[in-house]
């Protein structure tokens, strides 16, 4: 905007053209997320069709033997689902109480100066690369646990799950803290006015008021644990077992994908199609969970906004 | 009274819960740094000229397996080569500490008393042809065809049949030398060699080990610098180098930034400044939140299928950068939106009131104002991408890249993948280099986070009022 425009109408035309261009460009960028999601869905449905046409859904979801490269091949993913549930369950047992209590401490007990330091420090846990957690689980937590549990395998679901729990604490804590913090002051004051202690105000008034938001945080932590790859790939092993035992090596849905993609053998088109079917399942599960979590949080924000 | 006690206890419990998370973070960093410490001694041994490998001898007639260490590589012109050590020799002891695994040798150098430079005695048995000479398999043992000078000096003659060494029966030509190594290593001195000569059994006493002194330079700075700046030698952890992975990470993150940064800001500007409040906008918002939570392994499949195969980018830097861009785009959008939302409404209204169009308002007023916040979010999402391994692992498992990528079309490895590769190898020393690479990666990430925090603080000071 240095020199004054020579003729106003032309300048105005230029401006409106720029304006239209910007609007179009920005709209396209905004629609990119839609395009990526549609691509993922289309690609995964198309990619998994050859597999899903051949292997009955009952055998896929209900079979207890996963052996895609052996003869005879078998494509039951119950062992993988079981392994994912075991590691995710252990992770949530760690992360939910620790995350929720951390959130309560930050929002109700810590002075704001302490909160300003501790909250980013806790979020550093989410910034540690997952391969680092995997190494920590394999080389520190497993040897430590073997001192207490003698028949714990070198690879096992337990230490992978525990470390994954530490990793997802910030997902649980940060969002819970946000919703606890967003509970209106008036609810606190009402509780205090009828003679509640801080503990009573938190547990009987504030947490119930924030419950839907805490539920959303729980779901977010859950999807992180279900989709986590590197920790289980390093520390939980690569053996599909049924029934899953947390003390033994396990093969989760995500590591099954990694296993085939990085295997020594050249994956045939059909095995690759099985990878797409697992990917589709993972994507749909996280899509549903993420959407529920997002909508719950939106509704929570609207209610207390 | 008891209500107060319960409440107080709850507060303590909640604080302790927070402490557990932070404590684990500290333990993680501390234990990893401790596991990386032997790298100084490992590289000191490598610089003295020798790379080591673990071998083992199955003792015939038992289930026993006896480990020993061979020199896998002796660098020409190094102090070790000057001493006469060569490929195929067996290392018995370093600094008086007997060595049956490579890690023992590194520990011996690490814990030897002395300062930065130490000179330690090494004991080794030269390779088979130097120690024994020419031998061939025969019934009941191994026949000596043409003994080496050392073997002759010990009393072996052509035509002798080796029966056992240090009580270990001889079953093969290679095994005869291995038995000698294991026996001498265990006895730390002469061993009894049972020989049949002309139908008569005799027992010789023989110590084929040689001794010499090797200088080792234990310099942490030198070791870490070497680790950071050398190409990777995949077989020997003491010669592992992080340079290809560091350069690969840099390239991939640059490609990702070139794509995700403009698109992320544009998407955020659209959603925050342009999008009408309707069902489509709500859908986009839900999908962005969803993509941010999509498992990275799933994104990896997309990268492989779309970028590597359909677009023909192959398993290259370009495909890797684009895959990471898909992964970071949603977090970029979310972070940029937050920064845009922090720009006061009044600023937009003032610009519009002066006759600026919507784009001019965004371009000249809103974006410059929001930029520090956007940059903070950008750095944080880049640092996430820098630590991401799963999608790139799927994209092609470039686990054995030993050279530095030169351009967009080259295959590559990144630091987290290199850590994964080292962490999955059971041989001695790889856990140490994996831990060392973790120290490097975490340091990088902490630096990036510190920059982000500095930016945020500066930004908050400037526009606090």
Give the SSE map.
The complex is a heterodimer of chains A (305) and B (465).
Chain A: H1 8-54, H2 57-62, E1 66-67, E2 74-75, H3 78-109, H4 112-127, H5 130-146, H6 157-182, H7 185-193, H8 198-227, H9 230-235, H10 253-262, H11 269-304
Antiparallel strand pairs in A: 1-2
Chain B: H1 2-36, H2 39-48, E1 50-58, E2 65-74, H3 79-83, E3 90-94, E4 97-98, H4 102-111, E5 117-125, H5 128-131, E6 133-138, E7 141-147, H6 149-154, E8 161-165, E9 168-169, H7 173-187, E10 191-197, E11 200-206, E12 210-217, H8 220-229, H9 243-274, H10 279-292, H11 296-310, H12 317-341, H13 345-353, H14 358-386, H15 390-396, H16 415-423, H17 430-462
Antiparallel strand pairs in B: 1-2, 2-3, 3-4, 3-5, 5-12, 6-7, 7-8, 8-9, 8-10, 10-11
Can you characterise this structure?
The complex is a heterodimer of chains A (305) and B (465). Chain A has helices spanning 8-54, 57-62, 78-109, 112-127, 130-146, 157-182, 185-193, 198-227, 230-235, 253-262, 269-304, and strands at 66-67, 74-75. Chain A has a two-stranded antiparallel sheet. Chain A has 305 residues and is mostly helical. By secondary structure, chain B is of the alpha+beta class. Chain B folds into three domains: 39-125 and 212-219, Pdz3 Domain (Roll); 129-207, Pdz3 Domain (Roll); 230-462, Orthogonal Bundle (MetI-like fold), CATH 1.10.3720.10. Chain B has helices at residues 2-36, 39-48, 79-83, 102-111, 128-131, 149-154, 173-187, 220-229, 243-274, 279-292, 296-310, 317-341, 345-353, 358-386, 390-396, 415-423, 430-462, and strands spanning 50-58, 65-74, 90-94, 97-98, 117-125, 133-138, 141-147, 161-165, 168-169, 191-197, 200-206, 210-217. In chain B, strands 1, 2, 3, 4, 5 and 12 form a six-stranded antiparallel β-sheet that branches. In chain B, a hairpin with a 6-residue loop joins strand 1 and strand 2. Chains A and B meet through helix 1, helix 3, helix 4, helix 5 and helix 6 of A and helix 1, helix 9, helix 10, helix 11 and helix 12 of B.
């Amino acid at each position: 905007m240095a020199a004054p425009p020579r003729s106003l109408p032309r300048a105005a035309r230029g401006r409106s053209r720029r304006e239209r261009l910007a609007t179009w460009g920005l709209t396209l960028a905004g629609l990119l997320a839609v395009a990526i999601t549609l691509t993922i869905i289309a690609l995964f449905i198309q990619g998994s069709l050859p597999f899903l046409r051949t292997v009955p859904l009952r055998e896929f979801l209900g079979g207890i033997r996963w052996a895609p490269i052996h003869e005879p091949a078998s494509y039951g993913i119950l062992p993988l689902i079981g392994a994912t549930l075991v590691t995710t369950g252990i992770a949530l047992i760690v992360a939910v109480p620790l995350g929720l209590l951390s959130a309560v401490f930050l929002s109700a007990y810590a002075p704001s100066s302490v909160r300003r330091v501790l909250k980013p420090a806790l979020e550093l846990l989410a910034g540690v690369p997952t391969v680092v957690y995997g190494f920590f689980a394999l080389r520190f937590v497993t040897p430590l646990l073997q001192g207490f549990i003698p028949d714990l395998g070198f690879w096992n679901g337990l230490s992978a799950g525990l470390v994954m729990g530490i990793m997802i604490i910030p997902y649980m804590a940060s969002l819970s803290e946000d919703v606890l913090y967003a509970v209106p002051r008036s609810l606190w004051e009402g509780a205090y006015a009828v003679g509640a202690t801080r503990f009573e105000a938190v547990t009987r008034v504030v947490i119930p008021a924030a419950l839907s938001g805490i539920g959303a945080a729980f779901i977010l932590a859950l999807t992180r644990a279900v989709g986590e790859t590197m920790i289980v790939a390093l520390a939980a092993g690569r053996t599909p077992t049924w029934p899953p035992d947390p003390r033994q090596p396990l093969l989760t849905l995500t590591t099954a994908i990694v296993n085939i993609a990085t295997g020594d053998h050249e994956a045939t088109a059909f095995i690759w199609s099985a990878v797409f079917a697992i990917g589709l399942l993972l994507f749909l599960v996280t899509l549903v969970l993420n959407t529920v979590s997002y909508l719950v949080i939106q509704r929570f924000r609207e209610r207390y906004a | 009274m008891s209500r107060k006690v319960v409440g107080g206890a709850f507060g303590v419990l909640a604080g302790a819960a927070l402490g557990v998370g932070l404590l684990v973070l500290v333990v993680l960093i501390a234990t990893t740094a401790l596991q990386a410490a032997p790298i100084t001694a490992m590289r000191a041994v490598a610089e003295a000229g020798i790379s080591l490998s673990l071998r083992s001898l199955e003792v015939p007639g038992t289930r026993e397996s006896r480990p020993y260490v061979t020199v896998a590589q002796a660098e020409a012109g190094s102090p070790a080569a000057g001493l006469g050590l060569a490929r195929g020799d067996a290392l018995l002891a370093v600094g008086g500490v007997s060595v049956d695994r490579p890690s023992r040798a590194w520990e011996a150098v690490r814990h030897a008393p002395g300062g930065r430079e130490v000179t330690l005695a090494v004991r080794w048995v030269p390779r088979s042809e130097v120690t024994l000479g020419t031998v061939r398999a025969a019934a009941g043992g191994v026949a000596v065809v043409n003994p080496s000078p050392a073997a002759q000096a010990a009393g072996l003659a052509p035509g002798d049949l080796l029966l056992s060494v240090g009580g270990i029966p001889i079953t093969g030509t290679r095994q005869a030398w291995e038995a000698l190594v294991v026996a001498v290593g265990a006895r730390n001195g002469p061993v009894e060699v049972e020989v049949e000569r002309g139908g008569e059994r005799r027992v010789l006493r023989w110590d084929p080990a040689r001794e010499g002194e090797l200088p080792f330079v234990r310099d942490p700075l030198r070791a870490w610098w070497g680790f950071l700046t050398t190409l990777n030698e995949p077989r020997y952890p003491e010669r592992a180098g992080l340079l290809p992975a560091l350069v690969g990470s840099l390239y991939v993150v640059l490609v990702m930034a070139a794509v995700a940064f403009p698109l992320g800001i544009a998407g955020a500007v659209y959603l925050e400044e342009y999008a009408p409040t309707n069902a489509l906008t709500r859908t986009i918002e839900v999908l962005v939140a969803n993509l941010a939570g999509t498992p990275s392994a799933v994104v990896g499949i997309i990268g492989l299928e779309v970028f590597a195969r359909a677009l023909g980018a192959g398993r290259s830097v370009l495909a890797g950068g684009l895959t990471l861009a898909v992964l970071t785009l949603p977090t970029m959008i979310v972070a940029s939106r937050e920064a845009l939302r922090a720009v006061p409404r009044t600023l937009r209204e003032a610009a519009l009131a002066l006759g600026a169009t919507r784009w001019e308002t965004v371009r000249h007023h809103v974006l410059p104002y929001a930029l520090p916040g956007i940059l903070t979010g950008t750095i944080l999402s880049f640092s996430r991408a820098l630590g991401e391994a799963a999608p790139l692992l799927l994209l092609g498992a470039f686990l054995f890249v030993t050279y530095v990528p030169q351009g967009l079309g080259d295959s590559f490895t990144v630091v987290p993948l290199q850590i994964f590769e080292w962490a999955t190898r059971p041989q001695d020393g790889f856990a140490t280099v994996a831990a060392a690479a973790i120290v490097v990666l975490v340091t990088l990430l902490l630096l990036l986070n510190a920059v982000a925090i500095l930016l945020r603080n500066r930004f908050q000071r400037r526009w606090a009022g």
